[in-house]
Amino acid sequence: MAAGRRSGKTILSEWKLEKELWNRKPWPDARYFFAGPTQGQAEKIGWQRMLDRIQESPNASKIYKINYSDLIITVDVGF
């Protein structure tokens, strides 16, 4: 995405990821990711905000497991 600094790219990406996360897919084991140059930077950039957003979602009951050390959120939406 071509956009300047502080233009909302991270927030938009988090919103789109969270929106798609809850949609049932026609294949098993769908995966989404939010990445940064390093794991530490990805955590600093958006992990806590993304985690808060997902835990506050009306679909939060579908959260199966949260791995804080590997920054992985597993949800059960079926297929």
Give a summary of the structure in a few sentences.
The protein is an alpha+beta fold and 79 residues long. The protein has helices at residues 9-21, 39-55; strands spanning 63-67, 72-75.
Q: Based on DSSP secondary structure assignment, what is the total number of beta strands? A: 2
Largest sheet: 2 strands, antiparallel
Extract low-pLDDT stretches.
none
Strand content: 5-15%
Main structural class: alpha+beta
Number of helices: 2
Strand order of the largest sheet: 1-2
How do the helices and strands follow one another from N- to C-terminus?
Answer: HHEE
Q: Overall 3D geometry?
A: globular
Rounded mean pLDDT is 87
Kindly provide the radius of gyration, computed on alpha-carbon positions and rounded to a whole number of angstroms: 13 Å
**What distance separates the N and C termini?**
30 Å
Work out the helicity level: 25-40%
Characterize the structure shown.
- 38% of the residues lie in helices and 11% in strands.
- The chain has 79 residues and is α+β, with helices and mostly antiparallel strands.
- Strand 1 and strand 2 (72-75) form a beta hairpin.
- Helix 1 packs across helix 2.
Can you give keywords for this protein?
79 residues; alpha+beta; 2 helices; globular
Please outline the helices and strands:
Elements: H1 9-21, H2 39-55, E1 63-67, E2 72-75
Helix pairs in contact: 1-2
